[in-house]
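hey can u run this one w/ S-adenosyl-L-homocysteine bound, need the structure tokens asap thx
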Amino acid sequence: MDKADILSLTSEELEREILAMGEKAFRAKQVYDWLHVKKVTEFAQMSNISAQMREKLSKKFYINSLKIKKRLVSNIDNTVKYLYGLRDGEAVETVLMEYKHGNSLCISTQVGCRMGCRFCASTIAGWVRNLEPSEMLLQIYETERDSGKHVDSVVLMGIGEPLDNFDNVVKFLKILNSEGNGMSLRHLSLSTCGVVDKIYELAELRTGVTLSVSLHAATDEKRGAIMPINKRFHLRELMTACDDYFKSTGRRISFEYSLIEGINDTDESAEELIALLRGKNCHVNLIPVNEVKEREFKKSRYVERFRQRLENAGINATVRRTLGADINAACGQLRREDKAEVK
Ligand code: SAH
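ok here u go:
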């Protein structure tokens, strides 16, 4: 029988499993604490659990782990980029960034991506598989262990589309937010290219997670040309879902807008964005697009001019500081390079 991934179980699921083994419920709490608070890597380290029960656990379960395949440290700003190897030989990227308000970790949610955004390196070779909850948690646990730093906030903005791996992402959130582990989900942002039906589902769960929406263009024509998801869910549906998310959670939406020369950085595009967002309680993050070698897109030269236009129209906008520019911190690039080296 294949062993099960114990780190991916929520506390309720673990309790059910432990009761089914004929053990008492408080044992489940102890085991959960070893896994998610003390973060042990072997059953043998669970010193208040009897040898007999540890034996039973290790027959039924394994404790998942990640292997550091690469660690790149930026000489400019201390950003650290990890390439983590998974059990099946796949790899994902995780980026640790230092801000004034604390350390922020950008984690991946899938191996590859099937959303097809034209400017994004993560989607070029398509989707391979979803990450398990344990593989998302371990990106945090392993980075804290390796760097000796505490992760204060987490952004689901690495490789993959989190809402295309909805069930596992929700379980991950539950475990991260559980007693003992206790990261407030207010310190967590989930970034989506706009999977509208799942935005409604997420709102219903009342997790308190901040929603970031990758907008990148403010008309269906322009957005559809660079983001295939816009053919499935048009802008109007997306904006209605965002309004609903704000109404039901009280969390202000943050819109990502990567500026690409000649594509979405003109004064006309700025006016379209202003028309789309006017009156909404939101924030716009402007990002000079990261040039990806397989793609032709160029960084815009009008980032500041674009920001100024938004600000003049009363729309809250900041230009995201580029971190880790010397270590290819744009998502998907390191994994692609690694694959190319192996071939
Ligand atoms: N799939 C999710 C999260 C991962 S991408 C999403 O689409 O939001 C994280 C962010 O980086 C998104 O806003 C995405 O559009 C943006 N992005 C992808 N490639 C980029 C590039 N080359 N330059 C700048 N931003 C990019």
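The first strand starts at residue 4 and ends at 5. anyway lmk if its weird
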